[in-house]
Design goal:
The complex is a heterodimer of chains A (426) and B (327). Chain A is α+β, with helices and mostly antiparallel strands. Helices cover 28% and strands 25% of the residues of chain A. With 327 residues, chain B is of the alpha/beta class. The chains are: A alpha+beta (426), B alpha/beta (327).
Chain lengths: 426, 327
Amino acid sequence: MATIVELPRLSDTMEEGVIAKWHIAEGDKVKRGQVIADIETDKATMEYESFDAGTVLKIVASEGDTHPIGTPIAVLGKPGEDFEEALAGAGGGSKAKAEPEPQEEPESTEEPEPESTEEPESTQEPEPEPAAPSSDADDRVAASPLARRLAHEAGIALSTIEGSGPHGRVIKADVDAAIEGGGGGGTGTVSDGERTFVTRPDTPMKLSQMRKTIARRMGESNAEIPHFYLTIDLDMAGAVAMRTQLKAALPDVKISYNDMVILAVAKALQKHPEVNAYWDGKTIVRRGDIHVGMAVAVDEGLIVPPVRHTEQRTLSEVAGITRSLGTRARDKKLPPDEMTGSTFTVSNLGMFGIEQFLAVINPGEGAILAVGAIRDEAVVVDGALQPGKRMRVNLACDHRVMDGAVGAQFLVTLRGYLEQPLAMLA
Amino acid sequence: MPILQIREALREAIDEEMERDDRVFVMGEEVGYYNGAYKVTQGLLEKYGEQRVVDTPIAEAGFAGVGVGAAMAGLRPIIEFMTFNFSAVAFDQILNNAAKLRHLSGGQFTIPMVFRGPNAAAHMLSSTHSQAFESFYCGFPGVKVVSVATPYDAKGLLKSAIRDDNPIIFFESEVMYGVKGEVPEGEYLIPIGQADIKRPGSQVTVITWGQGVPITLEAAKMAEESGIDCEVIDLLTLRPLDRDAILQSVKKTNRAVLAYHGWPYGGTGAEVADLIAREAFYDLDAPVERVCYEDINFSYAENLEELAIPSPKQIFDAIAKVAYHSL
């Protein structure tokens, strides 16, 4: 049976690799452990030692080619053996599929088309299987049995220890060093001469793919996108009144203020297509569709499922969609194609009493609206003091895509829709 | 303390036991008038006469069987195989009579006898005379199996073997009869079933026996020069295993290498590796390594034979590997 040599994962963050150099040619005999190629990862060029022995039947990947991990790059077997079937069954990039990062991105707008290339399978990060003597996520970490036991006894997650053994195997010396270095070595005390304080060690956490993605993308966003911020205070008395009326008129439809904001944003984007746009590295790309995404907090982080074609929806439609998306997102039942594709994001922290905040733009979008709580406030109307309803929103804009005036005009339009909400329904 | 060769230490053991107990006798090819193919029995015929030092025809099945019968009748025979390669002819007597009669007779008979001779590869004897029999004789119940590598162990263990009421397979080495070492004057016994730490150490346990012992000690020296402190355990008794000695050492060092003259498939090496994997799993910091014969029939050609036998360098490499030394 021919053995398919797949592009290996040579670093934690490696998603794809380049065959920098082949050390073997078709027809060569390969021993186990023999260096067969240099592979360029996201970090370095590393030697790839064969896990198998055999004759090189075929070199599938050429030098210089970039492939996702798991892609067949060569075939080993017996001379003359037919390997076509094995190769056909290998399925390019099968391991890459198991790596859910692209699907899990909380904000993904790489593709303007909502029905983009995401594949529905393999959305969830595989749950580590519990094993008796190990703790939480340690099962996937290569470790000697002794290291596993010592780490367990010391209460250190193996995943936090850098392995120095073959193929990154965590060995006793690594665990000893971690204990020495205080990596989870338990609590202690420290005294300033007068009082004694309890000290506790820092604990590096095992990150979910979602958390890793958020960290990477938000970091990129803040580093690359020149943000500017515009804040406006909206009179929500009309919106409150309309919602009360709708509640009475349509008891089966539960409409939230956020639904009204989402629809108002969509209508405003329709009038200001320059805000429904993003910087693709070279130029501004205006979105053809309006998919307003709503930021939903879930256990592992944050996702932004979009209400597709928002501007063409009714308010009750929007309400139904956001309710369904929110529930399923929190239950982890949202398929990836429903998680991605927003063209503009609304993030609302009003339910926590947050009056105002500044959000970070999702890479691939031009702006994000941060929505605060509706406040009961004394307001001056025609020179007279009276009770009022106010809500502050902040628009974070990509200065490469738009200037202050454009953002301000968008907010003025948005104010119109939310202060006279009937206009949305017209 | 007197310095003796292994053959002299063995001779002292036989001599002392023959003197102590007149039921003890020696039988085998060339043990009498020729003084032994490897001179282990030199002088014994002169001292004890033909009744107790019996030259046999070249008929291993026959004299092994006579030995079993004599043991059943109350004598304590020492059967010398010129080499254990020839014991293959007597295998049925050992497997089905010596090892079974105590069981088959419901304990009415004991079989207090020793089968002794050189085992495993020597030098340029080709495939039929270069075989390691430890995996065969350890592979069934009813016998104990001993393998010695020093004069001290040879004497102390052979005396215990002669006094044991069970059939004992006693392995020596053709190339090691001239190995010298200190042997105390006067009587001493080494209990069967106890391993010996030939070199104490803290970082890697190397388990060996027989011809493996000297090359392992050499490898341990090489390791020391590289800063790796090895503990070398000579099993001495291959069946029953001294489990405590093995596990205690591995639990201390967290690493184990097996180095021995024997084929890789099955046998004592595999048995010990299995023991460590099951009983000391969470004390292991590296996979157990084995250094032994290539899985082939031996060549007469010296260069090819050398390639099949483990070298100190190969053992050192395995030690370095489990110690993650090259990393």
